[in-house]
Amino acid sequence: MSMTSTISVRVARKQREAVDICTFELVAEEGGPLPAFSAGSHVDVQLPGGLTRQYSLCNDPTESHRYLIGVLRDPASRGGSRAMHDQVAEGQVLQISAPNNHFPLAHDAQRHLLLAGGIGVTPILCMAERLANTGADFEMHYCTRSPERTAFHQRIAGSGFAPKVHFHFDDGAAGQKLDIAALLAAPASGVHLYVCGPKGFMDAVLNTARAQGWPEAQLHYEFFAGTVEKSDSDASFEVQLASSGRIVMVPSDKTVVQALADAGVDVQVSCEQGVCGTCLTRVIEGIPDHKDMYLTPEEQAANDQFTPCCSRAKTPRLVLDL
């Protein structure tokens, strides 16, 4: 992936936060302030080996001298988290993008309900600090497997908003576990829900919220790792480039991005899991088979855009705005 303009940053500090979780403090290589960011923002980080991965910023947005990211060493890693843990050291210079925000706070909300699962705490913690600074009404629930796998426990416990944060441990007593149905039982017009974490956790929260009648406009979420579902019905199909009329065949075992790359057509990608929206492409004709976790259900139903890194086609041909 080529990022249009990159920022050179130095790893000022690498620190173990919890079992299998490290934080990396990034400062401008030349010194001076970094571009401003808002709660919920992430940066694209170019890793050793040519990978690009997105990490949420988890420091206070009022800080301009550094970016802080937290990275879980994931046993199912496709190389990104391993590279960060094993190959990136203090003092190293990395190339990153300017911050982007696909997960912003709804500033018109009367109350904010923040739910974090595991490493999904990174953008949620940033939101909590921002809301605490502005005096907003919020509560935060943070679910992890165990206390020793709970990143930022000390930082949260020592903060001014500690009373608003509830910890829930999978290996703890039944009474302290998060009762999602009870928490989300009464949707109210001014209350907005934010959730980030592993897919199973997020599915449980969002499915419960929708079943309890929460309006889609009050649900905010960011998947940080996707699992693209392969299906036996993944057939070959054609994509046509609207600009040239050229037709490219997409075989059943390749993604649209891969088939286009083989044909010399590059689409900018980052996560390659339908999570980030970098590759989002307009669909002019045909019906996509959506497999992403970036578009809302309503956006998917419109069938006028799709993520070619993972989504496919329900019709024999898609005409793309390429």
Characterise the protein shown here.
This protein has 322 residues and is α/β, with parallel strands linked by helices. It folds into three domains: 7-96, Translation factors (Elongation Factor Tu (Ef-tu), domain 3, Beta Barrel), CATH 2.40.30; 111-223, Nucleotide-binding domain of ferredoxin-NADP reductase (FNR) module (Rossmann fold), CATH 3.40.50; 237-320, Beta-grasp domain (Ubiquitin-like (UB roll), Roll). 18% of the residues lie in helices and 30% in strands. The chain has helices at 80-87, 121-134, 153-157, 180-183, 199-211, 256-262, 297-302, and strands at 7-18, 21-28, 42-46, 52-56, 67-72, 93-96, 111-117, 138-144, 165-169, 191-197, 219-223, 237-241, 247-250, 281-285, 288-289, 305-306, 312-313, 317-320. The chain has a six-stranded antiparallel sheet, covered by helices on one side. Strand 10 (191-197), helix 5 (199-211) and strand 11 (219-223) form a beta-alpha-beta unit. The longest helix has 14 residues, at 121-134. It comes from Polaromonas hydrogenivorans. Residues 4-106 form the FAD-binding FR-type domain. Keywords: 2Fe-2S, Flavoprotein, FMN, Iron, Iron-sulfur, Metal-binding, Oxidoreductase. Its cofactor is FMN.
